[in-house]
Write a structure and sequence with these properties.
Helix content is 43%, strand content 3%. It has six helices and two strands, in the order H-E-H-H-E-H-H-H. The protein has a two-stranded parallel ribbon. The N terminus is likely disordered. It binds a DNA duplex through helix 2, helix 3 and strand 2.
DNA sequence: CGACTGACTCTCT
DNA sequence: CAGAGAGCCAGTC
């Protein structure tokens, strides 16, 4: 029962973004812009960050697998969120060095078949 | 409607 | 490779 004054929860764009982030497999990462593109929202990288920020930390969404296009974490090194994020990444085998990840090694690059399969189900 | 802000990205130096 | 600048877009005031 959501009031009509709370559009964010029902915004189809937000839903798409969260679904796409959930499609990132463990041990892999993606950039904000990449998620926006895959979600059918090119140019909305900032919106991806916004949605993740609105999402409660206890929600079942791998927010830690999303980084900047440079491979850097979106938070300043040593910030609580950055420490938490790198810990989660390390836990699944992703190396975080100097607050950044080597995208050449850990970037998630789904082909069309994998993408459709993961977004479906 | 205009000004500001920000879990962004690209280009140029 | 670090910094500066500009572009972009949704949300807030």
């Amino acid at each position: 029962m959501k009031s009509p004054r709370d559009p964010s929860a029902a915004d189809p764009r937000h839903v798409r973004i969260r679904d796409t982030v959930r499609a990132i497999p463990p041990g892999k990462v993606a950039s904000y812009g990449q998620i926006a593109d895959l979600a059918g929202l090119p140019g909305r990288a900032r919106m991806v960050g916004r949605v993740l920020g609105l999402t409660p930390g206890n929600a079942s969404i791998p927010w830690h697998r999303v980084l900047r296009a440079s491979g850097e974490l979106a938070f300043p090194a040593y910030a609580p969120d950055a420490l938490r994020q790198s810990a989660l990444l390390h836990a699944e085998g992703v190396e975080v060095k100097n607050n950044r990840v080597n995208l050449r090694r850990f970037r998630w690059q789904p082909d069309l078949a994998e993408l459709l399969f993961r977004l479906d189900t």
